[in-house]
Amino acid sequence: AMDGAPPPTSPTRLSVYVAVSQLLGLTLLATTGAWLGRYRSGVAWHSPLQFNAHPLCMVLGMVFLQGDALLVYRVFRHEAKRSTKALHALLHGLALVIALVGIIAVFESHRTKGIPDMYSLHSWCGMATFVLYFLQWFLGCGFFLFPSASFSLRGWYKPQHIFFGIALFILSITSCLLGITEMLLFKISDSYSHFVPEGILANTLGVLLVAFGLVVGYVLTREEWKRPPLAEELALSMDFKTLTEGESPGG
Length: 251
Description:
Layout: H1 12-39, H2 53-75, H3 81-113, H4 121-145, H5 151-188, H6 197-221, H7 231-245
Helix pairs in contact: 1-2, 1-6, 2-3, 2-5, 2-6, 3-4, 4-5, 5-6
């Protein structure tokens, strides 16, 4: 681009994998809605159906939106870094809000029906994932979106942020799989082993969750698909380092 050449375009295969991820994501949302609507009587807030808001919100927030937030830096490869950061944080924040609605739904439903809370492996993993996800979002905003840390501290934290971002995405999918199994065992334990339609549909949802996670994970781990830094970003990075650490750009 510095020699007057047009900016590079996104790799063709990257676009294909991102498109596949979105198709899988929309399909898993539709499958979740079909399961809840066809076999669990739908979703309503102040009613016995309030619990059903929980799986819908967790799949939408902690899987689909979280996955899309992770893909932002691959999809928007040549846009301004500040805008990309803001979109990344916005999607994660929206995922948090939707997941919080899902958590409130399950606690209120349990209280109404007299069901104990936080005793299952699903609830332990799910709550731990949500709390760590919030901390990850909060620290990410502090370090990168509204940076007040030094250049060296941001450089140290960035690999931790990337690792925990992928780890929390995996934990989110794992918690959903545990939740699907737990719900099936509670609702259709007597007929689940007979390959009833509800069990097959819910198992299909689990497979879609795994497939979505694998495609997103593949895109995130391809080194050649990482977002290349723009020339002005490199210059700003050096200026920030000079201001925060007193180093010369050439040093």
